[in-house]
Each structure stands twice: as C-alpha cells, then as structure tokens.
Amino acid sequence: MSERSAAPGGLALVERLVNTLDIEVGRDALDTEEGRAGLGIGDDELDTVRELRESLRAALLAHAGHPPHTTVVPLGQLLAQAPLLVTVDDTDGSAALAPADPGPLLSRVAAAVAGALVDGTWQRLKACEAPACHWAYYDRSPAGRSRWCSMQVCGARAKMRRYRAKDG
C-alpha cells in the first residue's frame, strides 16, 4: 500500500511480515506457497507466524499512539521464546545480538527487534492508523509523527472523511 521505502536493517523483515496481510482487500500472502517461501517459513509454522504478525502489528500501532486492533498475545511473551546470543567479531571487537537458532522466523524477528532497540529505530516502525489498512511503515519524518503509511491514500481518505463530517 505504501509508497515509502523499506525500513532499515532487520526492521525490513518485520515490516515485510506485518505487510503480508492486506486488510483492505482481505488478501494474506501467507496463504500462498510463494508468500511463505519469501519469509522462509513452512506450513507447520503458519499459526505461530500469524500470531506473531498480529502481535507485531499491535506494537507498531502503539508506536503510532493507537490502541491494539484486536486482542493479541503480548509481543514480549512471544519473543521470549526466541533466545538471543551476544556475538563478538574477533577482528574488530564489535558485538551484536543474534538468534540462538537462526532458522525460525520468530528467532530472526527477535534479533531484528533487539538490533532496532540498540540502534534506536524500533519506535520509528509504525502501523498506519487507518482501520482498513494498518500497513507497517518506517517513519522517516523529522519529528517522528507520521500517522499514515501513505499520505496520498490513507491520509487523503482520512482528511476527506473529516472534511465531509465537518461540512455535513
């Protein structure tokens, strides 16, 4: 839905996962083999991945100052199931958090969230406030106060609704 560029670093994975569901048209990319392959998940992980996706969406809505779209398992509870390791590069001594098991999507998402926390970008990943959208987007605005994934679509619709409500 969004014309915005992808989120930086590991957050691109989180953004891509959340955006597998197009709420407006009801299309879920996880229903397709291609959609699952793009995230490296199998059929046996679908329920867990969908639960993770909606918990992430609720967190991203909170980043934008909005209540959860539905009742979800708390994201922290899900991420606690994916242990991370501190890795240290022998050549330059730099440290990073990595999944103990890099295979499962939950582990890769946990590492992405941890990395974004460390570099200060986690709060900038948000979900569009439009109820028929809730698309994930990375807020690059200077003040960090973007509300919609697309000003041309969701923002314009919201402004038109407000205008009509005021006029009528």
Summarize the structure.
The protein is α+β, with helices and mostly antiparallel strands and 168 residues long.
Rg of Cα set: 17 Å
**Largest sheet strand order:** 1-2
Number of strands: 6
From the N-terminal CA to the C-terminal CA, the straight-line distance is: 29 Å
What would the principal axes of the Cα set say about the shape? globular
What oligomeric state best describes the polypeptide chains here? single chain
Determine the structural class based on helices, strands and strand pairing: alpha+beta
Mean pLDDT: 88
Query: What is the makeup of the main sheet?
Result: 2 strands, antiparallel
Task: Report low-confidence residues grouped into runs of 5 or more.
Answer: none
Which range best describes the helical content: under 10%, 10-25%, 25-40%, 40-55%, 55-70% or over 70%?
40-55%
Order of helices and strands: HEEHHHEEHEEH
Strand content: 5-15%
What is the tally of helical segments? 6
Notes on the structure:
This protein has 168 residues and is an alpha+beta fold. It is 42% helix and 12% strand. The chain is built from six helices and six strands; from the N terminus they run αββαααββαββα. A two-stranded antiparallel ribbon has the order 1-2. A two-stranded antiparallel sheet has the order 3-4. It has a two-stranded antiparallel sheet with strand order 5-6. The model has no long low-confidence stretch (mean pLDDT 88).
List keywords for this structure.
12% strand, 168 residues
Walk me through the topology.
Elements: H1 11-18, E1 21-22, E2 27-28, H2 33-39, H3 46-63, H4 75-79, E3 84-88, E4 95-99, H5 105-119, E5 125-127, E6 136-138, H6 151-167
Antiparallel strand pairs: 1-2, 3-4, 5-6
